[in-house]
């Protein structure tokens, strides 16, 4: 069976729960290796955490597995600590729903009974007292794990000092929880002048430098950027703009869009960039 879980300790608890049963258990870290190849490792059951990568990405992964030709018939046990009853009910109605659900805290007995209803499990050479001890330990650990921190959804803002911020009434960037949005940013120097009026490459680098500074102010960084939107006054400049963008994001490329606009607020501005980021922590 396969355990898909980012939390190493949680994965180890699940493995410990299966001590004494004749089965091969493989743990996969979501985002690193969640593809199974027939003939290499084809699971009989998947224990899938709903809470992955700081969100409920396990629900997305469940749908992906159920649509995969190789995995469509593999039973999935979805394990959650945070999904409420309404959300679970909604998920169970989906055509890509899991085959079974467990909400923490639960005992080793509950886990084994859930898996056993999907695939046959055989007890190996281990005493009943040992299994009982493991059951008590698992229940205690699950109770502790259920106490999860409440995310911080307070609002934080940062300003770059550009005169348009106060004139129009906006901030350079805003962070809510672990989500950061950076407003459209043009190439402006500290003294208010436009960077290199005829150089799209230099302006792009300046835009991204301002964005980077705003992200840092909000406790984020360029590695966290998941999307950029690029506005240029001449689409023929795409190679210069693209080269500067690639140099900054080469090792962590985000999704992006580049479109031509008729003009920006200053005719000497050739490019303006927006950015969205999701931090790895709240």
> CATH superfamily of the largest domain, please?
Response regulator
In whole angstroms, the N-to-C terminal distance is 32 Å
CATH second-level architecture of the largest domain: 3-Layer(aba) Sandwich
Task: Tally the beta strands.
Answer: 11
The total count of helices amounts to: 8
Shape label: elongated
Structural class: alpha/beta
**Name of the CATH first level of the largest domain:** Alpha Beta
Q: How would you describe this protein?
A:
By secondary structure, this protein is of the alpha/beta class. The protein folds into two domains: 2-146, 3-Layer(aba) Sandwich (Rossmann fold); 155-278, RutC-like (60s Ribosomal Protein L30, Chain: A, 2-Layer Sandwich). It is 33% helix and 20% strand. The chain is built from eight helices and eleven strands. The chain has helices at residues 8-17, 57-67, 85-92, 108-116, 128-146, 163-169, 200-217, 238-249; strands at residues 2-4, 26-28, 46-49, 76-80, 100-103, 155-158, 173-176, 179-186, 225-232, 255-260, 271-278. β4 (76-80), α3 (85-92) and β5 form a beta-alpha-beta unit. α1 (8-17) packs antiparallel against α5 (128-146) and α7 (200-217) packs parallel to α8 (238-249). The two termini are 32 Å apart. The relative contact order is 0.10.
């Amino acid at each position: 069976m396969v355990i898909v879980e980012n939390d190493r300790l949680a994965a180890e608890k699940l493995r410990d729960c299966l001590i004494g049963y004749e089965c091969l258990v493989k743990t996969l870290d979501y985002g690193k290796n969640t593809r199974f190849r027939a003939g290499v490792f084809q699971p009989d059951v998947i224990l899938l955490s709903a809470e992955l990568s700081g969100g409920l990405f396990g629900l997305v992964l469940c749908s992906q597995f159920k649509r995969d030709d190789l995995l469509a018939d593999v039973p999935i046990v979805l394990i959650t600590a945070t999904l409420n009853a309404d959300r679970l009910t909604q998920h169970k109605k989906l055509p890509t729903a899991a085959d079974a659900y467990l909400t923490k805290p639960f005992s080793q007995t509950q886990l084994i009974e859930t898996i056993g209803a999907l695939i046959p499990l055989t007890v190996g050479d281990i005493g009943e007292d040992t299994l009982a001890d493991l059951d008590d330990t698992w229940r205690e650990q699950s109770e502790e794990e259920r106490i999860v921190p409440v995310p911080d959804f307070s609002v934080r803002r940062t300003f770059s000092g550009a005169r348009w911020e106060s004139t129009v009434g906006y901030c350079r960037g805003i962070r809510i929880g672990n989500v950061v949005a950076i407003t459209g940013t043009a190439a402006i120097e500290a003294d208010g002048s436009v960077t290199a009026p005829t150089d799209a490459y230099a302006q792009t680098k300046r835009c991204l430098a301002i964005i980077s500074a705003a992200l840092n102010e909000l406790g984020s960084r360029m590695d966290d950027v998941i999307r950029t939107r690029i506005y240029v006054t001449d689409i023929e400049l795409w190679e210069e703009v693209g080269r500067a963008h690639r140099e900054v994001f080469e090792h962590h490329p985000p999704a992006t869009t580049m479109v031509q606009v008729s003009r920006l607020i200053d005719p000497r501005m050739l490019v303006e960039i927006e950015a969205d980021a999701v931090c790895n922590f709240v």
